[in-house]
Task: structure prediction
Amino acid sequence: MERRNLSASELADLAAIVGAPHVLAAKDDLQPYAHDWTEDFIHYPAAAAKPRTTEEVSRLLAFCNERRIPVTPQGGRTGLSGGALPLAGGLALSLERMNAILEIDMDNFVAVVEAGVVTQTLHEAVEEKGLYYPPDPASRGSCMIGGNVAENAGGPHAAKYGVTGRWVMGVEVVFADGGVAVTGGKTRKDVAGYDLTSLVLGSEGTLGVVTKAWLRLIPKPPHWATLVAPFPTLEDAARCVLELHRRGLVLSACEFVDKPSIDLSSKKKGVGVPFPEAEARLLLEFDGSSEAEVERDVTLAGEIALECAALDVVLATDEAKRRVLWEVRRGIAEAVHEMGVSAELDLAVPRTQLVPLVTAIRRISGAAGLKSVAFGHAADGNLHVHLWRDGKDPTARTLFGKTAAEIYAETVRLGGTVTGEHGVGITSKDVLSLYRSPAFLAAMRAIKRALDPNGILNPGKVIPAPG
Ligand SMILES: Cc1cc2nc3c(=O)[nH]c(=O)nc-3n(C[C@H](O)[C@H](O)[C@H](O)COP(=O)(O)OP(=O)(O)OC[C@H]3O[C@@H](n4cnc5c(N)ncnc54)[C@H](O)[C@@H]3O)c2cc1C
Result:
């Protein structure tokens, strides 16, 4: 993709909009804006701008649209599909200064926040008031609400509560020409016109820049119980996920972790795990309004796990033990990232296909001479798979690509999708047509042309070239 640099006069115009201290153009200053968490990819923008208000975002976009300057919206840059990489240079538009929690409305159960609020900051703020905002990507300590909306992010507690989109009542979005639209708000029912909230959700910065969001809250469930069950095989663990649901349990989280994942994360955290020989383990959580109900569910879950060949079941009886379990689970992505170059796939299948999926991943990666790590949100049939090979073999990337293509094809054959929650970005763009029909892709292109006719917003992402 051709790179767009910025002239001195264009930089001065940007500075006139957001203030000189909030426009960066020196290479050292731009380093953080040149990568997210996707593999080892680096793409420098020509400049980064950090607006403070919606009006500044609007003026920045109107200016860039007129000059045909590519704009890459950025939140916490924790994305795993390359969406925040400024592939074409141009402007990185960082929402980091728009980080105010504007209101926590205790009567309507709504939080109104700017796009740059870090997700965990919002969790803590609402929980202090006895409320709960369930979407919790494992990156919640650094990802931002705007990025969560743009990716329609999931997380462990999507098992019971669904992904980000279920909690977004409306957004304020700035389109490529600088026009500002508010798509919803505190009103719980609203069918006035097209559902633009849903259009913006998961649009990965290609249709507009989210500046504000209205988020639904609920009372925080007062009781919880967390259980870990180690299993001798991947298939036993995957089978147990199905059985737990078949028997009518509603799990608030149901995380699948294979042996390589737990080994990497527990070593990094310096935490020992029981039954280190287990090939897989499930982290199960229940919450509810009564202690008796939660206790009944977790007891039944333990019995079912043992029937499904679990080596044991270990209950986290206090908040400290629960925190350690979640720290090890949330630490997996970071530990895997530090392992070196690998390819990541974000697969999701109907829950009934989890067993064939885990078998296929191991078979296909093994046949290619690659190691694999698999972990994820099993209740949603969503597994994150990393392929890697020891050492620094320059041909490894080609092999990753070929092996990933086989795994994607098998996933789609099982009725699954090429990305469950991390988005298409650049990593799944080339396989999107395995899953989406030509008519679907044509509709995406038409929407993109209508809202961003000059193609300035996040060029090179999500939409594969026709043909
Ligand atoms: C350790 C780790 C664990 C993770 N766990 C999970 C998980 O459990 N579930 C999950 O779903 N994801 C997970 N992720 C992926 C990632 O955190 C999510 O996709 C998250 O939503 C990205 O938010 P961000 O603010 O970092 O966005 P960025 O990475 O900055 O951007 C992501 C995309 O959104 C666009 N964007 C960002 N802000 C805006 C905005 N205001 N307006 C318009 N577009 C915007 C960008 O252009 C880009 O396309 C994990 C990542 C890491 C590193």
Q: What stands out?
A: The radius of gyration is 22 Å.
